[in-house]
Records
---
Amino acid sequence: MEQARAVLASRFGYDAFRPGQEAVVSALLAGRDVLAVMPTGAGKSVCYQVPAVVMEGMALVVSPLVSLMADQVRAVQEAGIRGAYLNSTLTPGQQAEVLRRAAGGAYDLMYVAPERLADPRFAEFARTAQLALVAVDEAHCVSQWGQDFRPSYLSIGDFIASLPVRPPVAALTATATDLVRRDIVRLLGLQDAACTVTGFDRPNLRFAVERREPKQKLARLDEFIDERRAESGIVYCAKRATVEEVCDHLRERGIAATRYHAGLSADERERNQRAFVNDEAPVMVATNAFGMGIDKSNVSYVAHFNMPGSVEAYYQEAGRAGRDGSPAECLLLWCDGDIATGRFFIEQESTHEGLTAEEAEVVRASRRRMLESMVGYCYTTGCLRAYILRYFGEGARDETLPPQGGATEVAPNDDYAVCAPDPRRGRPWSALPTEENPTSSPPKRCCSNCDGEFEAVDVTAEARAIMRCVQALRGRFGKTTVVDVLRGADTESLRQWGLVNLPVYGTSEARRALLMEVVELLAADGYLAITEGKFPLVGFGPRYREAAEPDFALSIKQTPKVRKKGAAAQ
Ligand code: ADP
């Protein structure tokens, strides 16, 4: 490790390894496989770049980010590391030259896309090359449970197994769910892997959630960006058309914005990405196609114009802010329509190629749970940071990786301990004594909920009424019927079904829209479950019993208080 520390200082100019990096580096140096789960910006690259210098032979880095490889190689070369990449952007002649030089031991590190591993010329090279290690970046792409499944990742396991001398394998990802981690271990064939899960907290990020009517969203975004005109930021939208609309709108307002989504030509994507990274266009408006592997340190805000499909996707995208450790803002604007869009995307995914109907349904069920957690994040009146850390913490604590060729944890997740005080009891982070929170080197900036930027309305009575109604309807009807019955609606269909005779009929005077929201909140919190499909039905969720307990209470967030004009966001 002495040598590794010396390389870290002399080549990269860093005084010390960050949490997690040391565990990964020492495992690799000892010849062990590793699964490293570290949040975006934690410094995963160093984990394989340092061993690449210290160890004999060449480190092979498998990455899906072809468009970034040239930049990555330039960066390692600046650190005096002999790096190369091999991908389809090179001419066949250049590719042959790179392979020839690699065979002669000219490189410490080589980046390749997963598709390359199946190329016979490359396989031939790999059989004779001395490989120090194989690093699989964005390793969650191997799993259908992850956000970015790529079938080409499935060939990595076979490639590794085909090597005559098996080098240690490092799988790196920011995705923490237990299912994805199991898949990584299984599908890459990791053996007795050291599993390191580092803290997911990003103390310099401040989180804010605001519910806005679709018509209000642009005005709110304008206000938010106007407070940060000199800064660089990313605006994520769910759909390509929204990217176009928002980007045009910002440009009309004189903001140097650019755009990125899968509908643009590779050329334009590359150009726009570069313009953003070089600060020529400091605002990037994009779908989730943008950002994997982007290392732009001065992004000081990430605004979501729509609700993403999961807390993981959200945290990964929001985590692109503040990578230099400076204070940064993560704002999520959402409306009811976003939930519908999320559900629509899940349904669409059922056409996933190569999956049996049964498998597709399993994937859909998992996606639904992920979306519910995201909806919960939007609705919660508790600490947003704690909500996120609990989400990842739960995944990380569930140490049930497969026993055969499984993994042992070498660095415990410390976040959960840090974040243990129950945020629902209303103790904001700023009030936490620092002794309790030794990891907060930058002062902890928390969230809009801890800062009280919302109005909570007690909806316990409405929630109880809904639970009673769902019980009476035995999970055979949808949201609209539940609400109609409660409000005593005089409709033909209620009469036809005999629902007007139920004791719960007409027992609530609450607004229709509020009851609809409370149904969603109950579903997000697991008291109710809403099925998918054309006619979603409302039934009981796993926590339904808790709603019958005497201390059950539920509050819902209202549209945030309007800030005074000109008052700067902190
Ligand atoms: P990830 O791949 O985990 O998102 P990167 O490898 O791109 O993160 O690293 C994020 C940033 O952290 C980079 O700017 C990198 O230079 C910096 N960094 C990595 N390791 C250290 C370290 N030990 N000390 C200081 N800065 C570091």
---
Amino acid sequence: NKHSSLQGKSVVITAGPTREKIDDVRFISNYSSGKMGFAIARAAAERGAKVTLLAGPVSLITPPLVERVDVESAKEMYDAARQLFETCDVFVSAAAVADYRPDSPFQGKLKKNGEELSLTLRKNPDILAEFSKQKSPSQIAVGFALECEDGLKNAIKKRIEKKLDLIALNFYDGKSSGFEVETNMLTLIGSDDTATVLPLLSKPDAANRLLEAVEKLIQPDS
Ligand code: PMT
């Protein structure tokens, strides 16, 4: 076991989708399976980090030595994450957080009525951007950007807007990379905007490559 600079560090990872309630029996969500975030949690724990995994609704087994907190909505994920903002050394946001939620979910079950139904959606808090805003210079913020086109440009824009130390551009092609599948194609973009294109890898291998890049960002304890 070679020494990792993540050894003993407190690492928070978000994973999976969020569910935003329309009424008591329906919700808005997305196809995230949590596999990418769970693979990062496993790999970080293997490197000796103290890992807290904030998981949206997924059907995955908790990796060994990982503390898991289950949440449902973006607001719940934000509330759980906020408790950890101050103490974590690294925050990795692999969750596919819903950008919007129904403004006022109906109580009970919404009745079928008429040909049209309008829902007013309200913006959710941006968990990762809030972390970056509050973090000290020694804390590390890592994000993902799932993009179908103009990936590099959009990912760099997100890295700058959210003040991230590292962003993993996640190429979405609907078959071998992105949601649900076992493999992923990532491009790692650092704070100098240099891009490292990784090949199509299993999500565990992609997680290891991402954490190698994170290890290089950790300042040796003085
Ligand atoms: O779970 P899998 O099926 O394995 O799929 C993995 C994945 C594709 C979900 C994952 O690798 C990924 O790319 N996650 C980010 C998806 C995305 O498109 O994020 P975004 O572009 O909406 O947001 C950019 C970053 O801000 C992300 O790190 C996101 O977690 C974070 N964010 C976004 C919105 C919000 N309200 N809060 C956030 O923290």
